[in-house]
């Protein structure tokens, strides 16, 4: 009774309660608009639907941490080579500071997070690229982490699943960045020769040097709906040929039609599909 | 000489083309065409010939000498068909135990609708992966421009020989400036910053040998051809002693080491 009285009559507490309630509404209840169809929905509801618009199926961008939370079995993800981070090998002006700033703001050391985890009980290596970090571009650190992940998987006889999201090579690291394409591709090849499975999942956007290396080398290649996937960027192509690009050009559905994907997979079904793929490849290899 | 001047020389319209190196250095060169999938791409020359009596597979990017030729080869920018032809020829080289010698001279892979529809990215990725695992010696000679993944797709090798005024870069200096500064006119600045000259690549541990050109390869054709010839000979002599599995191991170690100091 006394407590109740205190709550009722404590003006400060009440104010605090009101404020925190307001903040909660503000954070979870922000109405978001679907970029494709304009459908309005609370952020919480978008989150519950895997950040896919329930009206039109548009896939909003998600972070690597979101995928780490939702793809592997709960609590099974263990990061590997988490301490690797890149420097400024060519002394590009302002690049070192930019990296530090991003590390501080996003809380990621580099544009990819690698580890092991289970999906539907099957152990696998997992890499999640994050395009908030330098557009997910592949510098020496991204190349090194991905390569080490494939080497780890080869040694431990594990499959690899990569969620790609990248603008391509990292300009500020010049030719060293370009050679990450060769390094990662060679590691994929060794992994493949050892009889292990590699599933490449292309998310928006996957372009340039990542498309022209490991992303295209999966035994099975899936993509999220609407993802932009290509080698040259649409702007460069338009400039070069001086004509309009066909509708849907370089989108996941277009690539599927042209034979460069095994399937386009809705984010809400991704975990289940990957689980099935892993299950289909289970069993001792000779 | 500044990096920008070297870029200009690398792109010089009179610079010797891939076909001239092939004609001069190899005997009885037999050109082979087609990718057996979709077409024939003239911007990549491929075939078999003798190098001092030894059968070798030769693959190289070809720029034109005039506008008409250049339109046919898209200014030396290959389509996926070109890379897939290279893959086919490299597979045969491995089958018959022939060393592979590549000549790199391209601004980059062609950015076009058809190229994307036929999987430019996949073609380059597959070429790179295949080259990394070839059980025969691979020697790459950079004779002019080496732009982006389109150049790397013929440049994964055991010995990288670069002409003094050839370049190898992540992207053209114009593209680089346009991406980073939204201003392709700042390409001069980009040239200096990108570390794209043979000297830079040698210092970075990527290039193994630099071939001197004097005042430029287009003014010293005969001397440059004979120097390249000698470099190929030396590299072959060393590499032919190694077993296939050793070559693959060494090549992987080589790739593994590039840029290692920075992580």
CATH topology of the largest domain in chain A: 2-enoyl-CoA Hydratase, Chain A, domain 1
Q: Treating each run of at least 4 consecutive H or I residues as one helix, how many helices of chain A?
A: 11
Our count of domains of chain B comes out at 1
Largest interface: A-B, 58 and 52 residues
Mean pLDDT of chain A: 91
**N/C terminus separation of chain A:** 73 Å
CATH names the topology of chain B as 2-enoyl-CoA Hydratase, Chain A, domain 1
CATH homologous superfamily grouping of the largest domain in chain A = 2-enoyl-CoA Hydratase, Chain A, domain 1
Total number of helical segments of chain B?
A: 12
Please tell me the overall pLDDT of chain B. Answer: 96
Task: Sketch the topology of chain A as an H/E string, one letter per element.
Answer: HHEEHHEHEEHEHEHEEHHEH
Global shape of chain B: globular
Descriptive overview:
The complex is a heterodimer of chains A (286) and B (263). Helices cover 42% and strands 17% of the residues of chain A. Chain A has 286 residues and is of the alpha/beta class. Chain A has two domains: 1-61, no CATH class; 71-280, 2-enoyl-CoA Hydratase, Chain A, domain 1, CATH 3.90.226.10. In chain A, helix 8 links the parallel strand 7 (198-207) and strand 8 (220-223). In chain A, helix 6 runs parallel beside helix 7. Chain A is globular and about 65 Å long. Chain B is an alpha/beta fold. Chain B has a seven-stranded mixed sheet. The chains are: A alpha/beta (286), B alpha/beta (263). Chains A and B meet through helix 6, helix 7, helix 8, strand 9 and helix 9 of A and helix 5, helix 6, helix 7, helix 8 and helix 12 of B.
């Amino acid at each position: 009774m006394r407590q109740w009285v205190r709550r009722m009559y404590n003006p400060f507490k009440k104010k605090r309660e009101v404020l925190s309630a307001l903040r909660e509404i503000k954070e979870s209840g922000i109405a978001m608009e679907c970029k494709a169809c304009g459908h309005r929905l609370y952020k919480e509801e978008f989150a519950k639907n895997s950040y896919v618009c329930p009206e039109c199926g548009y896939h909003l961008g998600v972070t690597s941490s979101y995928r780490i939370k939702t793809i592997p079995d709960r609590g099974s993800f263990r990061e590997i080579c988490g301490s690797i981070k890149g420097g400024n090998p060519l002394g590009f002006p302002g690049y070192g500071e930019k990296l530090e700033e991003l590390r501080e703001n996003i809380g990621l050391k580099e544009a990819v997070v690698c580890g092991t985890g289970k999906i539907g009980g099957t152990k696998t290596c997992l890499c999640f690229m994050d395009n908030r970090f330098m557009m997910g571009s592949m510098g020496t650190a991204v190349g090194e982490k991905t390569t080490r992940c494939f080497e780890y998987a080869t040694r431990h006889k594990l499959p690899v699943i990569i969620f790609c999201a990248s603008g391509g090579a990292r300009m500020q690291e010049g030719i060293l960045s370009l050679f990450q394409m060769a390094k990662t591709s060679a590691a994929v090849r060794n992994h493949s020769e050892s009889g292990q499975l590699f599933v490449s999942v292309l998310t928006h956007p996957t372009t340039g040097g990542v498309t022209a290396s490991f992303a295209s080398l999966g035994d099975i290649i899936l993509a999220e709906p609407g993802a932009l996937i290509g080698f040259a960027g649409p702007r460069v192509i338009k400039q070069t040929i001086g004509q309009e690009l066909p509708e849907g050009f370089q989108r996941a559905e277009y690539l599927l039609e042209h034979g460069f994907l095994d399937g386009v997979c809705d984010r809400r079904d991704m975990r289940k599909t990957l689980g099935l793929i892993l299950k289909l490849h289970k069993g001792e290899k000779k | 000489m500044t990096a920008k001047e070297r870029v200009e020389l690398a792109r010089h319209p009179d610079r010797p083309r891939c076909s001239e190196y092939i004609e001069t250095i190899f005997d009885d060169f037999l050109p082979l065409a087609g990718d057996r999938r979709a077409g024939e791409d003239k911007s990549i020359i491929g075939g078999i010939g003798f190098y001092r009596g030894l059968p070798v597979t030769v693959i190289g990017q070809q720029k034109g000498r005039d506008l008409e030729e250049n339109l046919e080869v898209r200014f030396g920018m290959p389509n996926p068909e070109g890379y897939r032809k290279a893959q086919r020829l490299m597979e045969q080289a491995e089958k018959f135990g022939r060393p592979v010698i590549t000549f790199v001279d391209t601004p980059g892979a062609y950015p076009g609708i058809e190229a994307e529809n036929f999987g430019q990215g996949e073609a380059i990725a597959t070429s790179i992966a295949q080259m990394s695992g070839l059980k025969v010696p691979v020697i790459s000679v950079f004779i002019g421009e080496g732009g982006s993944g389109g150049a790397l797709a013929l440049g994964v090798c055991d010995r990288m020989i670069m002409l003094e005024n050839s370049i190898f870069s992540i992207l053209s200096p114009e593209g680089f400036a346009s991406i980073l500064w939204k201003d392709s006119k700042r390409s001069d600045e980009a040239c200096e910053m990108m570390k794209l000259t043979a000297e830079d690549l040698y210092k970075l541990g990527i290039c193994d040998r630099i071939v001197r050109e004097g005042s430029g390869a287009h003014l010293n054709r005969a001397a440059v051809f004979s120097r390249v010839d000698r470099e190929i000979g030396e590299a072959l002599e060393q590499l032919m002693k190694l077993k296939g599995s050793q070559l693959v191991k060494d090549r992987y170690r080589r790739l593994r080491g590039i840029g290692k100091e920075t992580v």
